[in-house]
Design goal:
Length: about 850
Amino acid sequence: MTTPTSPRQAEAPLWRRMLPHLLAVLFFLVLASVYFAPILFDDKTLAQHDIVQFNGGSHEAAQFREATGEEALWTNSMFSGMPTYLISTRFPGDLSQYLHKVFTLDLPAVVANLFLALVCGYVLGLALGLSPVVSVVGAVALGFTSYNLIILAAGHNTKSLALAYAPLVLAGLLVAFRRNKWLGTALFALGLTMNIRSNHLQITYYLLLLVLVFGVVELFFAFREKRLPDFFARTALLGVAALLAAGVSFGRLYTTLEYSKYSIRGKSELKTAPPAAPGQSQDPVESGSGLNREYAFSYSYGIGETATLLIPNFYGGASQMKLSDNSETAKALTAAGVPPAQLTDYLAQMPTYWGDQPITSGPVYVGAVVFFLFVLGLLVADRRTRIWLLTGTLLSIVLAWGKNLETFNYLVFDYFPGYNKFRAVSMALVIAQLAMPVLAVLALARVLRGRPGFTAPAAVSTHPSLAALAGRPTDDADTAYLKKHVLRALVITAGLCALAFLAGLVADFASPVDAQLQQSGFPLDAIRADRASLLRSDVFRSLLFVALAAGVLWFFLQRKLSVAMSAALVGLLTLVDLWGVDKRYLNDGNFQRETVAEQFVPSPADQQILQDKDLSYRVLNMANPFNDAQTSYYHKSIGGYHGAKLRRYQDLIERQISPQLQRIYSENRPDAAPVLNMLNTRYLITPPAEKQPAQAIRNPGALGNAWYVSNVQPVQNPDQEIQALGTLDPGTTAVVDVSKFPGLKTEYAAEGSTIALTKYSPNALTYRTTAVQDGLVVFSEIYYADGWQAYLDGKPVAHLRADYVLRALPVPRGTHTIEFKFEPTQYALGNTVSLVASVLLIIAMLAALYYAFQHRPTPHTVSDTLLA
């Protein structure tokens, strides 16, 4: 008598079960390596604007870390001084940094990002119960979405990492609710930990919106099916996992939350608006916390622009794109007498984009094949899953429209928790680029298991990750059902392409930049003809890929193709489609041999300034100062490049620094800006002019590191305080808001008192002073209460804010040592909590994995649930 074998005993050997996954990972490594071959094989780097700016802004902190082994929690290299929390701060207690190195195989940054996106997409496919080959298709669809490569070209590496880990979060979510709650909880905790660690909270926010939609849909079905206790039990487990994930990054989150109160993401203290620029209306200052609407919604996706999900060049692609020598613009420029040697350079940066966004690096394109399969998924996928993914996609699109659907989006901005902290609402389309490929790959798996008479081999049908392709013998009715819906999806998608083509026939292809182009004599008719040509060309391109993908599925249902061949062909079409569009925005032209050191070769002006060996002074680069961090590489800069500078410093830029810079230009006097003097701006770098390089001009009015004042001008509120700076002599008078800092005299005997900076580091400043009488010292350092502590002769003393942004300190007569140390309690506490949470997370994940594998469910559950 034969003893029956259990499913676990009947499983194939471990190496055989692991082999498909290892081959998939190897395939992803090859794809990432081929795409970024110039980095791996030609010793080149990717020219990333934001990374160059990051290297400039973080240089002082990096140097301090290398020299001391400590973290520079403050830097004077940007905006006269700010915390490094969102620039370059490491948290040793966060042990997930070691996991990241393992997951990315320690590959170079951008190669690692793409590889990671593919691997996490693959894990999500397996979590859905799909076979390795179909999971690879899903990984390609998720990893090569155009936005993923576009943001890498721009240097948004943290955003890219957060997106790469997002599928891992969804994988845990699905496994927790549809399969094994313990395994799912462990996977969810791991994915969310790594996603939060990537430090792009806007992406995490959008991801959690998709998770929230999932939860609402699951709650509805749990209520209807009387499964509420089980639903809440699984939700509670995921809630604990989320707390642990947030705990691992607690240091980063806590310091960011603390800083946000003082940054432009926080509440403005001013009640009056800054002077309006010529020709612009004056907007009221936002009284609440967060960004103002105009700034937050400046990058809103056009309603018609949503067509780029299917047709990438529907609105011309990026703001500047390369046109061919056969384009209408090329012909017009040649006819206008542009020399052939210059023509190529002109054609490389043509204003092809004609949408409403002020600037764009490229469209969000999920792929024609993915779009077709997404439509098919809406017809054949299980209702619970398609409701979730369709709702998430629609929410994503509506949020991305921003000011183009202000009735809804202003309401969300004003009342949805945390939403007003983020700008560039077009980024909300990342929800769609996650949801659409998931539904697409589920549709593919549903078709591939639906052919009549198809029965998988026994070894395959018992394998958990291949359950979706195993299928049960199906009847002709199911095949007819699938054929009908494949045709319907083809008609719908092709119909959308046709509508796009018709829209191109009536559009004027006019761009907001055309008015400027016309003034320079640019051939507008030619560029508009090329914009129309780009649209028509991509309509036919997308239509071709849709037809090919539909043809593969049709031949499969006709029993002309095998499961593996059909999946491979759809995957190949998806890859070729997305790869081709990605290469428009990140190609060989984006790579360079220039190293970081070569990017920051000091100019003659820099070299001149660096001859000054004083401990600390500031530099203003007058060429676009507040969107430039390259100056910060060598100097303590008045300007910088950062999306979350201090709110008070932004006020100072808008209301005092910018108007005073105009005075410098008009009067040709480097000392004509009192605010720059009080910030110790010793050097101004003039913009390069024709035949004349940038020059460094010494400002004789710079007040130095600290000085005694004779008078205090009391004011009652922040508006009076900043307004007073316009007529202030900061060398003799300090403006103080006495409603916050009472008790000061209005006059001091400053004559004869001296003070000098004797020691400098980012986190600590030491001064030696001799006061003839009790006095008030103003320091050319930015006031930041949550961290900076003043010490007089080693004893802590209270300091105050003067001149809207600077520190001040009453000093008794005599000779003293004054120290300022940046000692934020948030960092120490946050780092400790991160360490404790990291250890707890590791223990909890190991326990969950052990329990999960001791209580494994039957392998067919997921495929039946998601693909039925």
